[in-house]
Every structure is written in C-alpha cells, then in structure tokens.
Amino acid sequence: MTDKRRGPWTITAERQVYDNPWITVTEYDVIRPDGAPGLYGVMEPKNLAVGVVPIFDNGDTMLVGQHRFAIDRHSWECPEGGGALDEDPRVTAQRELAEETGWSARRWREINRMAVSNSVTSEWGVGFIAWDLSEGAPDREGAEADMTVRRLPFQSALAMAMSGEITDAFSILMLGKADYLARTGALPNALSKAMLAR
C-alpha cells in the first residue's frame, strides 16, 4: 500500500477488523502529526443518523424514551434513527418520525449537520424541525418494543437537555438549535411564538 494522507496524519497500513450490517471498524497504522508512529481505530456506520424535533401548534414537542443497549440505561431523545447514506435525509427523518411516534408532518426544515463523535467514528447526523403535524399509528421495529412517547412543552424538553436529564448529544444539539432559531426569528413567527410561550 502506498502511504495515504489525512491532513497531518500519514496512513501506512489499514485493515478491517470488524464488519456487520450496520458498522465497519477499521484499524490504521499511522504516523501522527508529531512524527511518531501510532495506531488509530475508526468505527464507520453504514447509515446516516437523522433526528427530528416535532412541534405541535401549541408549542409542544415529543420525546421518545427507550433503553439504549450500548450505554445500558434509559434515554429520552428526539425521534431519531438511521437511513441509507444515499437516501435524502428528510425522507429518512419522515420515516423515523412516523415509525416511532405515528405522527407525520407537512412542513420540514433542516436545522443542523453534526459529526457525531469525531474522534472515534465517521458518523454524521442531520437534524430537522417539523411542524403542521398529523396523527397516525407507530410502526416500531422489534428493538423499539419498549419505546414510549412523551408529549411536553418545547421549553420543558429544552430544560431537560440543559439540566442533563437528556444525555443524547444529537437531541441536545437539535433542541438547542431549534430554540436558537425560534429566538432569532429564523422560523415562522407563529411557530416561534408557540415554542417560546411556555
């Protein structure tokens, strides 16, 4: 293999050490930016993460709660999931909202793109805010059988994120960004007023 560069890093060898339908883990022999040899492992998801902050006309939002295997604890989050890397992120977000909560939305806006944990994974996430909601029935996957849905004022969900009750980084970022957009006039006026009212 010819040495490859990633910014100030030089890759001298690479090998796939794990692969399943959702992730690949690649291990790299590298020359670090200080010139010393090193080892780097990267988890590469095969899907794009998406999430959505749904907003009702009265300013409420919805959180979903479930036990997360990787951290072995219950987690309150915005509806979120994953979709094919070549799928429109909004299509994935629409599907995840409907599957997890049963609700759909007629109006959508992308609010952020984030590197999920850029020291160990190449995963990217795309967040949306959605409003003008219509109710339906959830269609959850087997891994989501314990999922519950909680409707609450948007500002209460934001307070959960700021207090540490919500620990999911993607949800914290989406709630904070949605609040920022509401406070700076970047969302429709009626939507902003409802989100900030209580």
Write up this protein.
With 198 residues, the chain is of the alpha+beta class. It has 2 domains: 4-45; 47-113 and 123-197, Alpha-Beta Complex (Nucleoside Triphosphate Pyrophosphohydrolase). It is built from 4 helices and 11 strands. The chain has helices at 89-101, 154-163, 169-183, 189-197, and strands at residues 4-6, 9-19, 23-31, 37-45, 47-55, 60-68, 73-77, 80-84, 104-115, 124-134, 148-153. The strands form 3 sheets. It has a 4-stranded antiparallel β-sheet, with no helix packed on it. Helix 2 (154-163) crosses helix 3 (169-183). It is elongated.
Brief descriptors of the model:
198 residues; alpha+beta; Nucleoside Triphosphate Pyrophosphohydrolase; 2 domains; four-stranded antiparallel beta sheet; four-stranded mixed beta sheet; 4 helices
How many domains, as an integer? 2
Query: Would you identify the CATH architecture of the largest domain?
Result: Alpha-Beta Complex
Please state the structural category. Answer: alpha+beta
CATH superfamily of the largest domain: Nucleoside Triphosphate Pyrophosphohydrolase
Return the average pLDDT rounded to an integer. 95
What is the tally of beta strands?
11
* CATH class annotation of the largest domain: Alpha Beta
Query: What is the CA-CA span between the terminal residues?
Result: 59 Å
Number of helices: 4
Shape: elongated
Rg, Å, rounded: 19 Å
How do the strands of the widest beta sheet line up side by side?
1-2-3-4
| Major sheet size, sense and barrel closure | 4 strands, antiparallel
SSE pattern: EEEEEEEEHEEEHHH
The parts where pLDDT drops under 50 for at least 5 residues are none
User: Helix amount, in percent?
Assistant: 10-25%
Strand percentage, roughly? 35-45%
CATH fold descriptor of the largest domain: Nucleoside Triphosphate Pyrophosphohydrolase
